[in-house]
Amino acid sequence: MSEAALAGKREQTKAANRAAILDAARAVFSQIGYGAATVRDIVRETDLATGTFYNYFPDKESVLHALLDEAAAEIRSRVREARKSSHTIEEFVEGGFRAYYAYLVEDPKTFEMLRRNAGTIRSLFDEPTVGAGVEELREDLGAGIRSGLLPDHDVEYMAAAMVGAGFEVAVRMLDRTPPDVEGAVAFVTGIFLAGLSS
């Protein structure tokens, strides 16, 4: 086998090992919760040796961050696209929340992990994983105000309120069987449209 082919195979193996660890961690965090989970629990869900785990992650916290990074990147992309394509204040608010809640329901593995570990995730709101979404919301709110789409309000307060309320309603929505995306969207949209119009 050529050197290039060997290097390609090694990269594929590394990617597969990392994905296996992330999938196992998502399952373990969903089943027993982040707080109760150990690295050993995660490794047991894979065909990998314990030492292999540490080639990719130093601890379970870094695995949680990697999982949240993946989910947050997809959520931010969808939410931002919904806000950018809006032509009215209603579309701006409603579209962002709908994109967020729909993603949570579409991805059952992430859905369950978030539902089971809401308290842990809530404590990470100041981390870059979540902070990037807050910063993007501030930017989009500012752009909406400058364009005249949104009334002039305190962008910091509005972003904090939208992220906080959005997350808390998502947690309650995830606890319902089946999750009521449209009800959650209508509720938070009504709150923020009323607040923005005052």
Description:
The protein is mainly α. It folds into two domains: 1-58, Arc Repressor Mutant, subunit A, CATH 1.10.10.60; 61-197, Tetracycline Repressor, domain 2. The chain has ten helices and no strands. Helix 1 packs across helix 6 (108-116) and helix 5 runs antiparallel to helix 10.
Quick structural summary:
The chain is mainly alpha-helical. The chain has helices spanning 3-32, 39-44, 50-56, 60-84, 89-106, 108-116, 118-122, 128-147, 155-174, 181-197. The chain has two domains: 1-58, Orthogonal Bundle (Arc Repressor Mutant, subunit A); 61-197, Tetracycline Repressor, domain 2 (Orthogonal Bundle), CATH 1.10.357.10.
Task: Spell out the blueprint of helices and strands.
Elements: H1 3-32, H2 39-44, H3 50-56, H4 60-84, H5 89-106, H6 108-116, H7 118-122, H8 128-147, H9 155-174, H10 181-197
**What is the CATH topology descriptor of the largest domain?**
Tetracycline Repressor, domain 2
CATH C-level class of the largest domain is Mainly Alpha
Total number of β-strand segments?
0
Taken in chain order, the helices and strands follow as HHHHHHHHHH
Strand content: under 5%
Structural class: mainly alpha
Count of individual helical segments: 10
CATH superfamily of the largest domain: Tetracycline Repressor, domain 2
> Kindly, what is the distance between the CA atoms of the first and last residues, rounded to a whole number of angstroms?
69 Å
Q: Quickly count the domains.
A: 2
**From the coordinates shown, what is the CATH architecture of the largest domain?**
Orthogonal Bundle
